[in-house]
Amino acid sequence: MDNRSYFYYKNYSVPKDDPVHTNGTDKELIDAIYNRLRLCHVVLIMGGVYSTYSKWINKEILIANESFSIPKPIIGIKPWGQTNISTKVQENAVEIVGWNTESIVAAIRKHSNA
After folding, report:
1. Architecture label for domain 42-111
2. Between residues 23 and 70, which one has the greater pLDDT?
């Protein structure tokens, strides 16, 4: 998406080097996710089957849906080459898109309130 013309975005992911990834408490993880999601117009979540069992992704979904006066739209991204997608992501996404720039950009534009 970095090379997509006429499309600007900001990645609000919790930084990889943030200790909350490995050493944080549940509350610290929830706070870190909330503080990032509050800045977003939409939330992109990888929809691989592993997502069903991810504590992190389940918290993202819960926060996006329940922590804001207007829920953050979730866009599920189907990993390249996979035929199955997480039921949890499917049930909560406003749209599921393929792993390609044009599909992702179109979904962001469609569901963003920006």
Report:
1. 3-Layer(aba) Sandwich (3.40)
2. 70
